[in-house]
Amino acid sequence: MRFVIVTGMSGAGKTQAIRSLEDLGYFCVDNLPPTLISKFAEACFQTEGKIDKIAIVVDIRGRRFFDDLFDSLSHLDAEGYLYEVLFLEATDEVLVKRYKESRRKHPLAPDGRVINGISIERKKLRAIRDKANKIINTTKLSNKELNEEIINYFGEQGQIETQLLINVVSFGFKYGIPLDSDLVFDVRFLPNPFYIPELKPFSGLDKPVKDYVLAKNETKEFVDKLIDMLLFLIPSYKNEGKRQLIISIGCTGGRHRSVAISNKIYELLCHNGYNATIDHRDVNEDVNRGAGKL
């Protein structure tokens, strides 16, 4: 089990760090009172491996409870629980700037100057900083760069390469474009199987419709151009730290053309080594509603 205690200066990036750990599959708890650490650790270690990655944020938001941190860590040491401490920090100038941009008050100076709260906090955190296994100074780091630091230190081998999940979604325009789409492609320019009596009852999941749609020269050209563009775009999305890419492909009713082409794009993405899923949102909508063009 990997048990990580995330702490550090307010405004240094603990929220981003815990989000990155959560994306790596860690069970995360924010602002856990230090007095509860030992009981929480005991419960986690008793899961017999069912929960094997845990991260908790402990900081001065706990006010006077924060003073119990070292007693809790001593208890973990005495019980033989292995843990790591991640400490995040930044320069006073950058922390003050971040507080001014967010317009938030410092927890240790709610009615006073931020710089005074920062000074008090540094003194209170000095001992836990000395105990840290990993210290990250976020003064010059973007969120993307901090995420990469977290992945490099706490992720498993190969996790960076698989962190982007691609969702291919077929849909019908008459039921609306999926709200969470990143890329939307319209295939209503292709011949519609709806108007062929022997194909109308089927969907793009069935071989007759699939063969009809994919055999068209314009379909072949469209799929070739689309996959070329996606293979160009996806590495750039990954480099920018994007975790999920939703590619929506639509026809009129979301039953014939969009389904067949979405399946083909999904197959090609998987063939190229990408972590992809497929979802046919509206494939049965017109059947259920009993009307409309497909």
From TrEMBL:
Residues reported in the UniProt entry to bind ATP: G8, M9, S10, G11, A12, G13, K14, T15
Pfam families with a match to the protein in the record: PapZ_C, RapZ-like_N
Source domain of life: Bacteria
UniProt keyword annotation of Cytoplasm present: no
Domain RapZ C-terminal: from-to ranges: 165-283
Domain RapZ-like N-terminal, first and last residues per copy: 1-155
Residues that, per the record, bind GTP: D59, I60, R61, G62
Coiled coil: none
The keyword Repressor is assigned to this record: no
Keywords carried by this UniProt record: ATP-binding, GTP-binding, Nucleotide-binding
InterPro entries: P-loop_NTPase, RapZ-like, RapZ-like_N, RapZ_C
Entries under NCBIfam families matching the protein: PRK05416.1 (NF003828)
Protein name (record): UPF0042 nucleotide-binding protein
Species assigned in the record: Clostridium punense
